[in-house]
Amino acid sequence: MTKLWQKDKAATGIVDRFTVGRDLQFDIDLAPYDVLGSLAHTEMLASIGLLGGEEKKKVHQVLKEIHESMLRGEFSMREDVEDIHSQIELMLTEELGDIGKMIHSGRSRNDQVLVDLKLFMRAELTELIDLTTEVFHVLIDLSKKYQSVLMPGYTHMQVAMPSSFGLWFGAYAESLVDDMHFVKAAYDVINKNPLGSGAGFGSSFPLDRQMTTDLLGFESMNYNVVYAMMGRGKAERSLAAAMASIAATLGKMAMDICLYMGQDFGFVTFPDELTTGSSIMPHKKNPDVFELIRGKCNKIQGIPNDIALMTNNLPVGYHREMQLIKELLFPAIEDMKDCLQMVSFMLPQMQVNEEVIEQKKYNYLFTVEEVNRLVLSGVPFRDAYRTVGLQVERGEFQPNRKIEHTHAGSIGQLMLPEIRTAFEKCVSSFNLKKVEQAITALLKD
Q1: What is the mean pLDDT of residues 176-191?
Q2: How far apart (Å, rounded) are the C-alpha atoms in residues 255 and 291?
Q3: In whole angstroms, what is the distance from residue 116 CA to residue 264 CA?
Q4: What global pTM score does this model have?
Q5: Phi, psi of 224 (to 5 degrees)
Q6: Rounded (5°) CA angle 414-418-419
Q7: E strand or H helix at 193, and its extent?
Q8: Mean pLDDT across the stretch 158-170?
Q9: How far is CA 257 from the centre of its chain?
Q10: C-alpha R_g of the chain
Q11: What pLDDT band is residue 314 in, cutting at 50, 70 and 90?
């Protein structure tokens, strides 16, 4: 196996297998970002005289060809290399000879993998922003559509007061606003450049870290080189925490939908082709999609703690178990994206039971409405409460299903424009255009 660090003695096969683990599997995801980091690093090396102008030009030409092969899906990892960093340097050396051996000057695999991970996570967060935005707009549209369609509200799983499908959808839309603030916090932690920190202690080369920061579109650098290495694990945990926040929203909504699809509720249903059946019970319409969303989202909510347990007792500096974080985080990212895509696909096809509130079992939803009407007519609250309570006890209560809730955030005033504005304000604060422009310029011929 080809290793950047190999000198004379080769590790035995059993050690190779154990220490490399599943790195090659996940390094495919990091491959394009390793190229981007190398483009920025070699541009900087040329600016400080450690790489000639023509040498840089040749290196960049090959790196961009490698990047294009990745975009075409033609790139694969060789089985005899240790990681993506080794493979790209080997490919450059095979193509350019000694020039390819020069690109690692002033760089360690430690800061190389750090910048790969940060670029990868930043790109994944950008995709999560887009997917979450799509779900948000679906929820806003459904909230507006079903604003006045009443449904039972519950406390303690007991029938409580009238709600509406508009309120229900809008609640989850506003929950995503808060989730997006968690995403922004993670983005701010991740969007800092660790390149130039080397093995965690800097370099005697006069590296221009601001230059690589600008070339890669980072908002700033990790200033302290020791802290740049300490950030391994923190950045991943920040991303995991942001996903856990979104997952909590989706998981709760999925639980609601699983309940509401049941015959005892009958609030919503879906077309037959979007549900599953039973091998023995011909009447079944199972909410498998939302059960899986619920399960995946519950699993995602555990990832921040898993990462913390992997890293919280490590002293300063690099440690090999940090590579295991990828095995926790990368599959969770894919699960999160899948869940968001499925929610966007399923919700517009939900069929709402617009007559559900008319059932006799929901009569007592309107007791508070009757108390309030008596209060508005001049009856003291405690007397009104007692009057309605006695009607309930005697089986004499007759509901008036006409309700008028007009205050901010109620059935009659969902505040959807304000919720939309809050979401869009948060999304606009990411400054994604800056990153897009920097990466486009770095790859430009």
Answers
A1: 98
A2: 7
A3: 51
A4: 0.91
A5: -85, 125
A6: 75
A7: strand 192-193
A8: 95
A9: 22
A10: 28
A11: confident
Domain that holds residue 369: 361-412
265 found inside a domain: yes
How is residue 53 written in tokens?
Answer: 């102008």
Q: What is the pLDDT of residue 282?
A: 66
Both tokens of 14, joined, read 């059993």
- What are the DSSP calls for 131-163, one per residue? HHHHHHHHHHHHHHHTTT-EEEEEETTEEEEEE
Q: Phi/psi class of residue 269: alpha, beta or left (left: φ > 0; alpha: ψ in -120 to 50)?
A: beta
Check whether 14 has a pLDDT greater than 80.
no
Where would I find the H helices in 102-224? 109-145, 165-190, 209-215
Examine the domain organization and report whether 18 and 123 are in the same domain: no
Are 170 and 255 in a shared domain? yes
Claim to verify: residue 351 and residue 369 sit in the same structural domain: no
**pLDDT tens across 347-405, in order?**
999 999 999 999 999 999 999 999 999 999 999 999 999 999 999 999 999 999 888 89
Asked whether residue 176 falls in the same domain as residue 274, the answer is yes
Average pLDDT over all residues of the chain: 92
Q: Quick one: 376 and 264 in the same domain? A: no
Express each pLDDT in 95-137 by its tens digit.
999 999 899 999 998 999 999 999 999 999 999 999 999 999 9
Is 129 within 8 Å of 198 (Cβ atoms)? no
349 and 384, same domain (yes or no): no
| Shared-domain flag, residues 182 and 266 | yes
Q: In whole angstroms, give the CA distance from residue 68 to residue 115.
A: 20
**Number of domains making up the chain:** 3
One domain for residues 173 and 316: yes
